[in-house]
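note to self: dont lose this again. the chain is below, predicted strucutre after it. 115 aa total, dont forget to put it in the shared folder this time
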Amino acid sequence: VQLVESGGGFVHSGGSLLLSCAASGFPFDAYLMSWHRQAPGKERELIARITPASDVREYSPTVKGRFITWRDNLEKMLYLQLSDLKPEDTAVYYCKVSAYDRDHWGQGTQVTVSS
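---
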C-alpha cells in the first residue's frame, strides 16, 4: 500500500489549495478513504472521509462548508479542495486508508496559511 499526497503550499487567508493523494497497492475502489491533519503541538485530527462509491462524504465541523473531498476510482486518486483558508488550517495534511488490518498513511503535505 502506498499513498502519496501533493498540492500543499503557502497561501494567504481566504486562499485556496487543491490537495491530491495518489494511491496504489490495494483495490482503491473498495475502501473508504479519509483526510487528516496535524497542526504543530496538536493531535492528528480526522477532517473528511468518503465512501468507496462516493455516496457518503463526511466532514469535521471545523472544515465543513469550506473543504470538499472527492475521488476518482479509475485513476486511484483522492482529492481535497481547501477553500476560504484560515491561519488555523495550517497543518500537515495526510490521506489514510485502513486496509489489510492496519492503517496506512501518506508522508503528508504541508499547508501554511498566513493572516
